[in-house]
Amino acid sequence: MASKARIAICLLRNDLRLHDNEALSWAFKNADFVVPLYCFDPRHYKGTWHFNLPKTGSHRLKFLLESVSDLRNTLRLKGSNLIVRVGKPEVIVPELVKTLSDVQNLVFHEEVTYEELKVEKALTHSGIEVKTFWGHTLYHKSDLPFSVNNLPDVYTQFRKSVEAKCPVRKIIDVDDVKPVPEGLEEGQIPTMEDLGVKSVPVDPRGALNFKGGETVALDRLNLHYLWETDKVATYKETRNGMIGADYSTKFSIWLAHGCISPRKIYWEIKRYEQERTANQSTYWVIFELLWRDYFRYVALKYGNQIFYEGGVQNKRIPWKQDKAMFEAWKDGRTGVPYVDANMREMAATGFMSNRGRQNVASFLTKDLKLDWRMGAEWFESVLIDHDVTSNYGNWLYSAGIGNDPREDRKFNMVKQGLDYDPDGEYVRLWVPELEKIKDGSVHHVWTLSISVLSRAEVSLGETYPNPIVIAPEWSRHTNKKSGRNQGPPQKQNKGMDFYFKGSQKH
């Protein structure tokens, strides 16, 4: 009597790739038929936890839909397919088990935060054997030189220990792809409207029309950023840029969805270093990947505390929840041009530079003294590269209640603008009300004379808002010659380029 065919369901979430995908690899090796499954969970399209902002905004959803479609195409070319459903995974999986009588295994990559862990716990009751893998970090959890409970609370200590004692595992090959069971409906990929999210037009000012999927991610790595352009060799010098597609890697947007593996980036850079050049820039990309690892392990160590008002330090700070101030920040109408330009870029494109993220977060928490969770939830809503552990880890860091050894870190908005946008080019791009102010004085427009503002057709309070706050330290940089770098850039938050980049980063 012939034995029954073995079927495995592989639930995909933030791992939308074929390469270096241990869950898919195991399923293909240990089953006769495999169901690669992606569920559009309706909970992801509701409101955020505290402030009911759209949990998944249009920019990220567009990218996600492209990533799902790309993976389906890749799997089809290999003789498989991606099964798509709209619904909660803990409901969809048991339905598939009932439909497919010979399902023996459910496999997936482990997550570390509350909502995802709640789904995983429910899936353990799906009636079949569950097998999980660790697959989102550069360094594997099992290879760390300390237990997660003993994770250092300072990044530098973590980095030095891991770099000295941990190997980076080789990339897992995904071969011998197995077909999906016959007769299983593949399911239609929903539209944005199906999920209740309104699409927005592409803003032509955006430097890179970010497209989702493993195919584009690998092209960005292998061709565009390394081998064809050698941009990686100057990354450390350019990563604090503000305008353009290539001042930073932009890898974070594909990393966040799992379209590319951090190990893939690592080993390709190592090959580049052997065949082309190894310098501080090539190392610095890996340095940023380690920041990404670190925040995931911080989330694993502290659990839900990363979402609490007092953060991992459990520090009591009298945060405000002033709605008018928050709306001004969110909409880029604070009257502080450097802040407004960054916030408008993010709203229009789903992306903001590392330098911008650090500054707008500092402005929200240190100048406006607003609840950091308001900023974190808005980033979650809008950013294409939202990654829950990097997002909340970085916001805790910025708010002074996370993994930062220095107290009272605060950015000077005028100095930062003059350092990183000395001629005001970036501000004029995103704040067209100020486009006729042709030098760096655009960063402190409220100090300009009435005659200068009139010639530039700017009326503070009407054409462009008066600042909602003016920090005393800004005055040190408003009386100097505009358009000139006012001393060396601040060496704050030099890491985190894969989320507050970021994230990425980029």
Question: What do these coordinates show?
Answer:
The chain is globular and about 85 Å long. It has 18 helices and 5 strands. 39% of the residues lie in helices and 6% in strands. Mean pLDDT is 92; it is low at 481-499 and 501-506. It has helices at 22-30, 58-77, 89-99, 114-123, 155-165, 214-227, 235-238, 252-255, 262-275, 280-302, 323-331, 337-349, 354-367, 372-382, 388-399, 413-420, 425-430, 450-455, and strands spanning 7-12, 33-40, 83-86, 103-109, 129-133. It has a 5-stranded parallel sheet, sandwiched between helices. With 506 residues, the protein is mostly helical.
Features:
506 residues, mainly alpha, 18 helices, 6% strand
The geometry reads as globular
Mean pLDDT: 92
- Give me the secondary-structure category: mainly alpha
Query: Strand order across the biggest sheet?
Result: 3-2-1-4-5
Topology order in helix (H) and strand (E) letters? EHEHEHEHEHHHHHHHHHHHHHH
Strand content: 5-15%
Compute the number of strand runs: 5
The biggest beta sheet is recorded as: 5 strands, parallel
Overall radius of gyration = 24 Å
- Fraction of helical residues: 25-40%
- First CA to last CA: what distance? 57 Å
Query: Helix count?
Result: 18
Low-pLDDT segments: 481-499, 501-506
